[in-house]
Fold:
Amino acid sequence: MAEGVKNNELSVGDELGVYELGFHLLPIIAEENLVGEVSNIKSVIEKNGGLFIGEEGAPKSIKLAYEMSKVIGNEKKVFDTAYFGWIKFEANPGSVSKMKTELGRMENILRFLLVKSVRESKMIFRKPSMVPSISLPKEKSKESSKEKEPISEVQVDKAIDELVVE
Structure:
């Protein structure tokens, strides 16, 4: 590191990346302890130089798409629900692997996913209520102004013969 630069400061040339951490907390955690668990996760991010951009709020209990298991103590336990939460933050790419290691050791995290992201959300949250329709003016031809008479098979065959070049 450059002289005079502290451990938590970036040196010249270091660029922060934007990351999102999605996590499932064990459903056996009491709801009043969820804030403390999220604080523990945030402290791992802060300790490794992460700067918070956004978060969903308190984790919400959800039904999982499939059962997940985790060894707790010496016993394998299977869960079909979990508390889901996410946090968006900036960090030095070199510190992200340290965060992953520390998060993997946390007992109350059932599963987590840490991905590189973008600062702005490009998701559309609301469906437009009405899509305007654009109608182009139609060209009026001489034939369309005339009343159309039914065409006989003989006329159709004659028209096809004129189009076909032998």
